[in-house]
């Protein structure tokens, strides 16, 4: 539809129809029984005029429901403005990929773009038009249940992954209306939800504007530059004001600084939470605060339909601001091609698109394989397929490995660890719990593979923990298995970094599988058998103890730095634990034995007009190939404000066959040294700086250079 016609449509709308257009409900509010509830369902009456002119439906369960809901809606909407159907497609629709934290572990933006396209296409063929993904939140506290929904602790990695997911969902600019395999992306939670106090969902957040611009905005900026159509403000606060009511965040930063011109939509019921937070005494005041701050659509609180009309009558809300919000929603529907065809993703596309087919399952297997991180290997893996394996542990034969936010994925479709191994190994025996520790009972077994970790429902939204260690009964199990004298391989399923300090010594090899999704068991078998090479690298730091969190690699420099090797009083340290993590950001092993040569540079002086090139040779001396993720970190020696020593600036993934050498080149520019200064401008400081090249944030070689 020509955009002038959108304005003509807007002029014809009554105030009630405009308010309805800015409201999203689940199908239950239309008298339907079906519809997934991902929050508390409000108990309130809604006038029919608002239901007839409703703007969006959330979490309809099936293609058939969406067809019928749209058809009924168009019968009653006076201006025939179609609904837009939205849903959380976080890491798959029916075919479930690894949780986003596992996607971050791939360090492979191109792979993630392909994944987003496939999962979005699967959802689109069933009628979904908008997904609430990617979650661009910076996640540094493993107690927070929603770390599983983001791609980790590093702003640069998050920015790359967020942009890739947006591109995967939406495709190239302008094709949404013409390509029914694409859906619109809503980036969330804007901004700083990951900084919740004590890692507890919906808790308070407090950080500076410098931190906002330096750490929390880059991933949102990247997603917006990639074309994200919607932004969802967080439940949490910024400078004492809920993000959903913050004019600073929604107008000054989002619209002016980030240049976002799409629509904003609240999180589930967040406008209603203004009353619980005591910044509004009723629905009318709550609706005023949200609309005037720049919120376009109210998800599931009902505040707009119960408060905006009276707010306008009393002059507290300007109709022109409502018109601006309505126009953005009309523009979204126009970008999706809904005015030309309200059933664009309901017709032939439903019949022809592959849903839960072999192609998408094969890709889910590939992505899962690349997400799994090899944390330890005492020359155990890979295993010969003739070896006799005993599978045990609470998750050894479990199909509950999809992870939170797995949409319409079915556990019955998931491939368990045991099933995956049985497909590739000649002798796989299930060892029921509780297990014996008598070596005689294991005479027919060479290697024990133990499926360990946490339950799916112990991660995700509203699943925060104070203790992130493995359950004690699993530690007891491993100690019992040690008495058998057998080699033990631990496969750990989790939605967060877990504290593994008390089990690392009990295992001969460790594969950290996250929640790997539908094809998880097959992916693990591919790695354990050596059909595939380990590639995953940690997108979050793994602590030694729960009390270390939040812990992340790029903390600002400290005025009283501690030395774990030579601890002393009056330094920033623990008296009962090292400061250093158990496993650092970027860490991950391969099957090959790769040696990093000495980096060489073409010059030691960086200028605005002359970059520096650093070359390093990697030599694989083993009989196994290796996929290396070579990481490049940089940071200025003297800075205007206190800064981390270094931050991730580049990485490259390269496969190095057995017995071969590969040379890698990194280009360092002045932009790699730029950061947000106290005036919120981003620039680089002249003077000395360092570059680190290595396999993780703590395993590197360092170069000292100069920027003039």
From TrEMBL:
It is an enzyme of class 3 (hydrolase). It holds the Pfam family Glyco_hydro_3. InterPro entries: Cellulose_Degrad_GH3 (IPR051915), Fn3-like (IPR026891), GH (IPR017853), Glyco_hydro_3_C (IPR002772), Glyco_hydro_3_C_sf (IPR036881), Glyco_hydro_3_N (IPR001764), Glyco_hydro_3_N_sf (IPR036962), Ig-like_fold (IPR013783). It catalyses: Hydrolysis of terminal, non-reducing beta-D-glucosyl residues with release of beta-D-glucose. The keyword Transferase does not apply. Its EC number is 3.2.1.21. Keywords: Glycosidase, Hydrolase, Signal. Residues 628-697 form the Fibronectin type III-like domain. SUPFAM superfamilies: (Trans)glycosidases (SSF51445), Beta-D-glucan exohydrolase, C-terminal domain (SSF52279). The keyword Signal applies. It comes from the Bacteria. GO terms for molecular function: hydrolase activity. Belongs to the glycosyl hydrolase 3 family. This is beta-glucosidase. It comes from Lapidilactobacillus gannanensis.
């Amino acid at each position: 539809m020509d955009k002038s016609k959108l304005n003509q449509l807007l002029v014809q709308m009554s105030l009630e129809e405009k308010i309805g257009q800015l409201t999203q409900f689940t199908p239950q509010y239309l008298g339907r029984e079906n519809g997934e509830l991902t929050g508390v369902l409000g108990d309130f009456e809604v006038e029919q005029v608002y239901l007839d002119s409703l703007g969006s439906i959330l979490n309809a369960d099936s293609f058939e429901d969406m067809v019928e809901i749209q058809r009924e809606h168009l019968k009653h909407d006076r201006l025939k403005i179609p609904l837009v159907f939205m849903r959380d497609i976080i890491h798959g629709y029916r075919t479930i990929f690894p949780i986003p934290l596992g996607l971050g572990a791939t360090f492979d933006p191109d792979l993630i773009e392909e994944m987003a396209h496939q999962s979005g296409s699967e959802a689109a063929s069933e009628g979904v038009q908008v997904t609430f993904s990617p979650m661009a939140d910076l996640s540094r506290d493993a107690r927070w249940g929603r770390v599983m929904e983001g791609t980790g602790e590093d702003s640069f990695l998050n920015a790359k992954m967020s942009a890739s997911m947006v591109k995967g969902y939406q495709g190239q600019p302008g094709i949404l209306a013409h390509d029914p395999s694409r859906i619109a992306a809503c980036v969330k939670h804007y901004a700083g939800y990951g900084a919740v106090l004590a890692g507890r969902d919906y808790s308070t957040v407090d950080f500076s504007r410098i931190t906002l611009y330096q750490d929390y905005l880059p991933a949102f900026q990247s997603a917006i530059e990639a074309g994200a159509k919607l932004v969802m403000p967080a439940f949490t606060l910024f400078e004492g004001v809920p993000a959903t009511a913050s004019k600073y965040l929604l107008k000054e930063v989002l619209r002016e600084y980030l240049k976002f011109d799409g629509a904003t939509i609240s999180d589930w019921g967040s406008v209603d939470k203004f009353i619980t937070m005591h910044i509004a005494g009723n629905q009318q005041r709550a609706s005023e605060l949200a609309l005037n701050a720049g919120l376009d659509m109210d998800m599931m609180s009902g505040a707009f339909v119960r408060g905006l009309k009276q707010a306008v009558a009393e002059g507290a809300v300007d109709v022109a601001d409502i018109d601006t919000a309505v126009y953005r929603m009309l523009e979204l529907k126009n970008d999706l091609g809904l005015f030309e065809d309200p059933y664009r993703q309901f017709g032939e596309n439903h019949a022809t698109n592959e849903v839960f087919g072999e192609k998408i399952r094969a890709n889910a297997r590939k992505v899962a394989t690349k997400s799994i991180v090899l944390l330890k290997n005492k020359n155990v893996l890979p295993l010969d397929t003739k070896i006799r394996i005993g599978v045990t542990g609470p998750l050894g034969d479990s199909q509950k490995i999809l992870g939170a936010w797995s949409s319409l994925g079915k556990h019955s479709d998931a491939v368990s660890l045991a099933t995956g191994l049985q497909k590739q190994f000649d002798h796989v025996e299930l060892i029921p719990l509780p297990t014996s520790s008598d070596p005689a009972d294991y005479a027919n077994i060479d290697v024990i593979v133990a499926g360990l970790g946490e339950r799916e429902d112990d991660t995700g939204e509203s699943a925060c923990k104070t203790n992130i260690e493995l359950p004690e009964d699993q530690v007891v199990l491993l100690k019992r298995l040690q008495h058998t004298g057998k080699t033990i391989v631990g496969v750990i399923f989790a939605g967060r970094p877990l504290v593994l300090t008390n089990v690392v010594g009990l295992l001969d090899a460790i594969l950290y599988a996250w929640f790997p999704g539908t094809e998880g068991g097959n992916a693990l078998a591919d790695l354990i058998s050596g059909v595939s090479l380990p590639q995953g690298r940690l997108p979050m730091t793994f602590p030694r103890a729960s009390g270390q969190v939040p812990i992340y690699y790029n903390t600002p420099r400290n005025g009283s730095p501690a030395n774990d090797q030579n601890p002393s009083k009056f330094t920033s340290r623990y008296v009962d634990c090292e400061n250093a993590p158990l496993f650092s950001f970027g860490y991950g092993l391969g099957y090959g034995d790769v040696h990093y040569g000495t980096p060489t540079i073409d010059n030691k002086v960086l200028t605005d007009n002359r970059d520096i090139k650093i070359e390093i040779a990697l030599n694989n001396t083993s009989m196994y190939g290796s996929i290396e993720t070579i990481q490049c970190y940089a940071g200025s020696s003297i800075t205007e404000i206190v800064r981390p020593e270094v931050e991730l600036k580049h990485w490259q993934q390269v496969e190095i066959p057995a017995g071969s050498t590969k040379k890698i080149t990194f280009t360092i520019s002045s932009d790699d040294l730029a950061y947000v200064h106290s005036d919120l401008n981003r620039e680089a400081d002249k003077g000395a700086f360092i570059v680190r090249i290595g396999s993780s944030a703590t395993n590197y070689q360092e170069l000292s250079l100069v920027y003039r």
